[in-house]
Request: fold
Amino acid sequence: MPTNSDIAKLLLRLTLGGLMLFHGVHKVIHGIGGVKSMVTNSGLPEFIAYGVYIGEIIAPIFIILGLYARVASLVMGINMLMAIFLAYGFSLSLSKYGGLAIESPLLFLIMSILLFLLGSGKYGVNSK
Reply:
């Protein structure tokens, strides 16, 4: 019989992976020129920008499936740390709507940490 925690883990996986996948598909369609600019402006090598495809396409698919979800969530968490660093510089400034400017990537980071700690649950391919 399914438990509430297994259903919650499934919902977390589907939400985290599904929402991030939209960002990745956008980058596949429109390219990663903006990411490349941010990476090189920070003094990092340009090839690092291509990691966004791993963090926003491959990792979310693994998360949705529950296939090595802990590893995939770690990859996505690192991706979100880089996004926060590159796009916002870890600033705690407010947006024009009153929330933190880093709110979206911060939520993805926290969800990645939660999934890493909880595992994929009963409904994942690996079921851990």
About this structure: DSSP finds five helices and no strands in the chain. The CA atoms of residues 20 and 63 lie 10 Å apart. The two ends are 16 Å apart (CA to CA).
